[in-house]
Amino acid sequence: MGSAGEAYLFEAVRTPRGHGGEAGALAGVRPVELVGQLLHALGERGLDPTAVDDLVLGCVTQVGDQGANVAKIAALWAGWPEAVPGLTLTRFCASGLDAIGTAAARVIAGFDGLIVAGGVESMSRVPMLADRGAWWMDPEVAERTRYVHMALSADLIASLDGHGREALDAWALRSHVRARAAWAGGHFARSIVPVRGADGEVLLGQDERVKADLSVDALAAKPPVAATLASADPAGVEAGVRRIHARYPELGEGGLRHLHSRATAPAVVDGAALVVVGSLERGRALGLEPRARVVGYAAASVEPVIMLTATEPACRRALAQAGRRPGEVELFEINESFSATVLRTVRALEVDAERVNVHGGAIAMGHPLGASGAILVGTLLDALDERRSVQESGLGVATLCAGAGLGTAVAIERC
């Protein structure tokens, strides 16, 4: 055990995000291999695995290839010392960010000196909802807990906030344009670790889903997600719409507008990401230089029908821990679960959208569930580093909404 103090972020790495499905570049790569290659990369960057107190990973669908404590098994797969434990946790889509927040809290408390934290999700090999949770599989539980498909919740937010289809499509196009520019400009170069096959060949070196030829007209032609859902699960959609109108009667007849398409939701992808979290003393003893200090970590929850708006209270709580306000934040990384959820967070926090997702987001590059929080933190670290000459606050916030009304935020300050 070390002394209580502060938690710092020393390094961040991630895989490129591969298209989810059999044709995806990473579909043949086990989740433990995705994590294992990142662990090897950290070793090549100077991390001594014998100094690591724990490996903490977020993973949402913990069955099949992702069952049986994937964190510990990934450490063994990578040949890390048997003395390194492993913890796999879930808070739905916020899992990877909670892994980092949990690691930081343990370091601040003095229980640990150095933890590798992050997340992994292979949506090709372990599809979303494959764990068959009672929340959506058990009709009585779904009714009592007011389960609604998240796409309907996103449409609810857009309807309540008065967004038209054009505004949602515009945010999606922005995500792709910025992601393309970031890749072309080398803004992800520091954190990206290409995924290799057994013979060493590169399977994927760049996010696979970013589109080069997307247009406003192409986006406008996409059908609403709700129509696809209604074809696949008419009873579930009907129940969700009923629960929405029961909770939000002010919508009135026809007030719920089905506005989101697959193009204004995040792509299904595979990927992993890791962040090295530790005390200043332990890091410097290992020759690691701090890049940022964790100044806030908070979870929040809202009512489960609207579901996707807890980013605002989570951000406010995390910033309050640092004695800061949203207007003082230099950069935000807000997970693009849907266009409307990001627009809601930007409006609720009253921040400049130009400070949000400066290199694109999950709509363009994909949302590998349990890994996304760690990806956001790594992107934030790199972007804050690039802006040292700007001489602003150096304060950054990463945040994600999650199922059942959950949300998490981590605030960091550039060193």
Automatic annotation (TrEMBL):
The active site is at 93 (acyl-thioester intermediate), 367 (proton acceptor), 401 (proton acceptor). The keyword Manganese does not apply. Residues 10-225 form the Thiolase N-terminal domain. Residues 289-414 form the Thiolase C-terminal domain. PANTHER family: ACETYL-COA C-ACYLTRANSFERASE, BLR7806 PROTEIN. One of its GO terms (molecular function) is acetyl-CoA C-acyltransferase activity. Transmembrane segments: none annotated. It comes from the Bacteria. SUPFAM superfamilies: Thiolase-like. Belongs to the thiolase-like superfamily. Thiolase family. This is Acetyl-CoA acetyltransferase. Keywords: Acyltransferase, Transferase.
